[in-house]
Write a structure and sequence with these properties.
Elements (H helix, E strand, L loop, with lengths): L1 H43 L3 H10 L8 H6 L2 H14 L3 H10 L5 H24 L4 H11 L6 H9 L1 H13 L9
Helix pairs in contact: 6-8
Length: 182
Amino acid sequence: MQKSWKNRFVSQCLALVAFMVMSTWVQADDSKELDRWLETTQEFIPMKDVFEAIGENSTIANQYSEEEFLALSVDKQDEVLDDMLKEQGVYDKMYNVLKAKDWESAGEYVRASARYGKAIAYQMREMLTASMPEEQKKMMQEMSGEIEANPEDVKLVKDNWDKVTAFMSKNIQQGNLPPAAR
């Protein structure tokens, strides 16, 4: 009886160690993607006018609401984004940066941007409201609306908050915030 208890205990310990090692690898991979996203975004900041122009002038972009675009398959999203970049004459310029940073497509980068942007907004709101009285916290959440961020992305952002804030601080000081953050 004791032998089976010891075997179970050892098995559970080994499973726990394996889980911890695997979660460290996954966290490291996710952290690398966040780093890659921050680096790519930094390289795109000098082109922020291009992104503003795409949003304002693209006939392709104007064909879709945000909900309609998000409802498209990933492949179709990639196709639409590539068509927008071609329409604006910046496809090669954008893909030079994307390929140098190992992104499969503009769509992959845009989807990562959406995920990390939501996680950053969520984390910022949580930090701002952490010490507020409950009434003020509720009011702040009502004003900012629902932020639907993936809990894993939020954890990743929180665990790498020093990198995110360094990126934001650098770009605030240089006046290089993207339009949505101004």
